[in-house]
Every structure is written in structure tokens, then in C-alpha cells.
Fold:
Amino acid sequence: MTFTKPAIQSFMPETRTLMGPGPSDVPKRILDAMARPTLGHLDPDFVGMMDEVKQLLQYAFQTKNELTMAVSAPGSAGMEMCFVNLVEPGDKVIVCQNGVFGGRMKENVERCGGTAIMVQDDWGKPVDLNKVKEALDQNKDAKIVAFVHAETSTGARSDAKAIVALAHEYGCLTIVDAVTSLGGSELKVDEWNIDAIYSGSQKCLSCTPGLSPVSFSNQALEVIKNRKTKVQSWFLDLNLVMGYWGSNQKRSYHHTAPINALYGLHEALVILLEEGIEHAWERHYQNHLKLKEGLEALGLDFFVEEQYRLPQLNAITLNEGLDDAALRTKLLRNYGIEIGGGLGVMTGKIWRIGLMGHSSRQENIDKLIGALKDTL
Ligand SMILES: *Cc1c(COP(=O)(O)O)cnc(C)c1O
Structure:
């Protein structure tokens, strides 16, 4: 049998302006870092760089947690790592849902053999503390409270500090989704006593997709070490991954780290370090205010109440009669700008305009507002 060679040449993408729910614009500095020579994954120089990535992530998460690292897979794998390591068959987990990602947490709990007690809030609203308290009162045997800090599907921010404090009053551990909040709005893992947290490289860190920063407290680690059952996932079992990312022991082969992707994350975190995390949070906020002014001048309204809005993810209510898909295609084809449509039940109802990481700058705001003025 003969195969005809397909007529395919190198892929040469255009440069876009990425203003959706992630990935965000990747600075050239990060792309350049990723083009540096590939080292062996047990090369002492590379091992040294991995140690720096750990320290840089500790800074980004504002934590001293020893178990802080990047999972070699996207944010969804960081989510899964938290659940498969902390949830054992029969465990009860209170899952707060106010958008798409809380629903994925439920899936994770159930696939681990646990029971998910759902606390539902309307999409676009933050997690309601009173409902969480009610669920905790009715489920004194719950082991974990899980919630999304920054709901990317709606643009709403929940009060992570208060939810974690409440969960701890009831002796529960906490799993926090910080995929969209890390680097974009205030997040303090140690001060807020978060037990397990995961994020992604491609949102407010402005790195390429495919890595998931995670961090686990000592309390969480104790629970993992004392599991009665084996973690069902070999790849995500922290007991094994620790031998690879742990600092005090000799590095042992677990999987081959995505070397060049980690150069990129290292550079992204150095950029964050240079800016200073508080400055990064403030920049995201100030640019959100500028975007808001421009959007409101065009007669567009925000979907989320002002006090709960995420500066890095601006959800805009679509007026009746606006052709969602056609307009977004126009923005992409005529201006090279990508914005996000609604996800799940929000499809056709909102637009999601991301001002994440390197995308959060004046130039992008001007470009988008100008393009919207011409297009609407
Ligand atoms: C993007 C996102 C994820 C998933 O991350 P991937 O890198 O796409 O796997 C999870 N949670 C939230 C809140 C997100 O915004």
C-alpha cells in the first residue's frame, strides 16, 4: 500500500491580540526563552532551574509551602491533581458552583468515588457564604470544601479568604481554583490558609498553555500521606511526583518534564517578580477601569455586579439582536482580536473580554475599543 505525502509545510500563524478567557498574549521575552537549547531533564543546570521555578511560584502564590510546583499539563490537570490526591472513596466534598468550573469539580469528586454536596449560586454571582455554612451544618462529616476563586465563565470573584476561614471552622480542608486569579488579582495562599490550590500558565501569567502551578499546605500533605487507598492516577500521584520536584532528595525519574515549556514559565515568573505582584494586581485593576469606561461609552453593560467583578475577565451582557458569533469573527478577521463568547448556559448571552497578564495594557484596550466602535 502506498501513501501519498500530504502537501503540508511549516505552520506560520499570524500574531493575534488575545483578549479572551485565555490564553493571553505571550511576550516575546517568554517565547525567546522557550527557544533556548533543550537540556536533559536530569541535567544539574535544569534541576537548578526547576528549583528556581519553585521559589518563583512560592512568590506568585505568596506561600512558603514546600510542595509548590508546576504540573506538566494544563490547569485541568492541576485541578485533577488536587482532587485525586485528597479525595478517597466515600469522602464527602462540598462543591460550590457558580459557573462552568464548579461543575468540573463535581465530576472530579465523583470520579474519585466521593460524594459531592453541591452549593449552587446563580451564574454571575459570587459563592454565597450563608449557603456554604448551611451545607457545612448539614454535613458535619464533610472533608473538603472546594470552590473557584475567579470564575472565568462569568467574570465573578468569590471571597476566598472568608470561604476558607469558614471551612476551617468546620475542620474541612479547602481546594481552590485560582487558574484565572493567580497574578491578576489579590491571592495570598499562606495568609488565607488555603490547603490545596491550582492555577494555569496561560492566563494572568501570560505564558504558553500547558503547565499548571499547584501548591499544597502541610496539613494537606499529611492527609495525602495517610491515605488508606492508592491514588487512582499514577501520573498525578503526589507521592510519586514529589520524588521529581522535591528538593532535599536526589531527583528520580518520574516523567520527562516539558523542558522548554518550563523555561517559558520561569521567564514569565521572572517578569512577575520584576514587576512585583502587588503592582501586577493594581495594573490589572486600573486597566479594567479604563476598559470599563470605553465599553460604557459604547453603551455596553457588565454582567456581574461591580463589587464582584474580576479585573482580568470582563463579562459584557449582549443586547438582543447582536449577532454574537458574526461579530466575534469580524473582530478576529478584520482586527486580529480574539475575545471570548459565553460558555455553557451563557452562550450567546455574554462576551468575555480578558485583560490577563501581558494582554492587560493600554494598547490592547485602545485597539479593542476602536474595533468595537467600528464594528457595532
Ligand atoms: C482555564 C480554566 C481552567 C482550566 O485550565 P486549562 O488550562 O484550560 O486546563 C480551570 N479553571 C478555571 C477557572 C479556568 O479559567
